[in-house]
Specification:
4 helices; 133 residues; alpha+beta; 39% helix; single chain
Length: 133
């Protein structure tokens, strides 16, 4: 599978994660990113390949060539990759990971309780269907 574009692996049943995926597709004017929900065959296989259980994921992953980013590094790399004004989120990289990642992990553990869980995996509209794996 060619990895010319960074691939974002996310939980398609998580309301927060699905809203974030929709935000990325809408604001990624360069069409840089491809997305793969963990509920699909490609997403599940890539989660497993990188040591994350797709049935109980604890992180979002961004696969960019040979680099695999997770937790706050993954989220911040996505937003900096969207361009202005979203790239300003990169300022959070000045904060040490040991401060950023616990906050990320807390949200990840509580995402269904706080934001809800979708009955079905989110499906993109036709305009963005070619960017979902």
């Amino acid at each position: 599978m060619p990895e010319a574009h960074p691939i974002i692996l996310f939980d398609g049943e998580c309301a927060l994660c699905s809203a974030n995926a929709q935000f990325i597709l809408t604001h990624d004017k360069a069409r840089r990113y491809r997305l793969a929900p963990m509920q699909g065959a490609v997403g599940a296989a890539l989660f497993r390949k990188h040591g994350v259980d797709p049935n109980d994921p604890d992180t979002i992953l961004v696969i960019d060539g040979d680099r695999v980013l997770r937790e706050s590094d993954a989220v911040l790399s996505i937003y900096t990759g969207l361009g202005w004004p979203w790239r300003i989120a990169g300022l959070a990289l000045l904060m040490p990971r040991w401060l950023r990642d616990p906050a990320y992990r807390w949200v990840a553990r509580n995402r269904y309780r706080i934001f809800g869980r979708r009955e079905t995996c989110w499906i993109p509209n036709a305009e963005h269907a070619d960017r979902i794996m």
